Amino acid sequence: MPVERIVLSQQARDQLVRLKRFTKLPHWNSLCRWAFCASLAEESPPPRAKIPADSSVEMSWQTFAGPYHEIYWALVKERCRRDGLASDDKTLGEQFHLYLHRGIGYLTGDRKVRSIEGLLGKAIESRADSSQ
Length: 132
Fold this sequence. Notes:
Layout: E1 5-7, H1 10-23, H2 28-40, E2 58-60, H3 61-65, H4 69-82, H5 89-109, H6 116-130
Antiparallel strand pairs: 1-2
Helix pairs in contact: 1-5, 2-5
């Protein structure tokens, strides 16, 4: 079963505020989807960390994933399988949060992502890298 509620850390919230300002994307969930996918594109798994749920940004799994909720959950499962991790709900939920938070940090730290064009450029660049 997917994560029911997603509560971000205060640091992630602050980073999303910056990303919203840069990209003009109005919704947290859209940026979170981009961040999650950017993080999944990395070869290495995110480092284990305790991520505090200490911000006011909260959304349901359905809000995060939208009509593609099954695909996003399958991506988490597949990545855990590839990384040699268990596929129980607790592990999947922890890994989802780790990938999401790492991705938010990646997008915020990428100087190219200072506009919606920069965000799209990152996706195109990532796709070109993976096809080589």
